[in-house]
Amino acid sequence: MRHDGHDDERREVETARGPAPRHWRDRPAYELLTATVEILAARTVAIDDAVRERRHSQLVVLGAGLDARAWRMRKLPQTTVFEVDRPASQADKRMRVRNLEPVTEELAFVPVEFGTDSLTGALESAGHRSELPTTWIWEGVLPYLTTDQVRATLADVAERSAPGSQLIATYPQR
């Protein structure tokens, strides 16, 4: 087993892949994790299909976190991927992917603190071209933002979106 500082995460994944624990104390965490995996797998497939359908030359992942599309989606070879996230999250991700090669035309890490930094300015500086259609992915981020941060981000997305662009967002229902 590799020891890269993420052994606790690997143990959780291995637990979810195995049989259900027999002891009742271990069941709630197992059930929560396996239910989450089922939802995330379906959500990932639906988003991937939408990205493939449009085949835009630009893909912006808002709140990219550990999103791996730039490393796993072989249908993105002529696409520039812009991963937008907090600088600390990007530092962690860069460490995790340091030995991996992206399968995209180009990959740009765009550091942005939502609600503080200018998304428009950061994307422009990273080479995003507002005259080209863009696919935007906003997956699993909305619950962590205020209403004002959501509105400001949507205004920036609208400003940088050429005709034919698409926004794919996931959000919880109250």
Structure description:
The protein is α/β, with parallel strands linked by helices and 174 residues long. The protein contains six helices and five strands. Strands 3-2-1-4-5 form a five-stranded parallel beta sheet, sandwiched between helices. The chain starts with 6 loop residues before the first helix and ends in a 5-residue tail after the last strand.
Order of helices and strands: HHEHEHEHEHE
Strand fraction equals 5-15%
Radius of gyration: 18 Å
Structural class: alpha/beta
Low-confidence segments, ≥5 residues, pLDDT <50? none
Mean pLDDT: 89
* N-to-C CA distance: 41 Å
How many runs of DSSP E, i.e. beta strands? 5
Structural shape: globular
Largest beta-sheet details: 5 strands, parallel
Q: How many helix segments?
A: 6
Approximately how much helix is present in the residues? 40-55%
* Lateral arrangement of strands in the main beta sheet: 3-2-1-4-5
Question: Would you summarize the structure shown here?
Answer:
With 174 residues, the protein is α/β, with parallel strands linked by helices. It has 6 helices and 5 strands.
Characteristic key phrases:
alpha/beta, 174 residues, 5-stranded parallel beta sheet, 43% helix, globular, 5 strands
Please outline the helices and strands.
Layout: H1 7-17, H2 27-54, E1 58-62, H3 69-72, E2 80-85, H4 87-96, E3 106-111, H5 119-126, E4 134-138, H6 147-159, E5 166-169
Helix pairs in contact: 1-2
